[in-house]
Amino acid sequence: MNNSDIVFDAKHIWHPYTSMSQPIPTYPIVKAQGSELIMADGKKLVDGMSSWWAAIHGYNHHVLNQAVIEQLQKMSHVMFGGLTHPAAISVCRQLVEITPKPLECVFLADSGSVAVEVALKMALQYWQAKGEKRQQILTLRHGYHGDTFGAMAVCCPENSMHSLYKGCLPKHIFVDAPQCGFYNQWNHHYLSPIERTLSVYNKKIAAIILEPIVQGAGGMRFYHPNYLKGIRSLCNHYGILLIADEIATGFGRTGQLFACDHANIFPDIMCLGKALTGGYMTLSATITTRHIADTISDGIAGCFMHGPTFMGNPLACAVANASVKLLLENPWQKTVTKIEQQLIKELAPLVSHPDVKDVRILGAIGVVEMRAPVNAVELQKKFIKQGVWVRPFGRLIYVMPPYIISSEHLSKLTEAIKKVINV
Ligand SMILES: Cc1ncc(COP(=O)(O)O)c(C=O)c1O
Question: Which residues are designated catalytic?
Answer without folding.
Answer: 17, 144, 245, 274
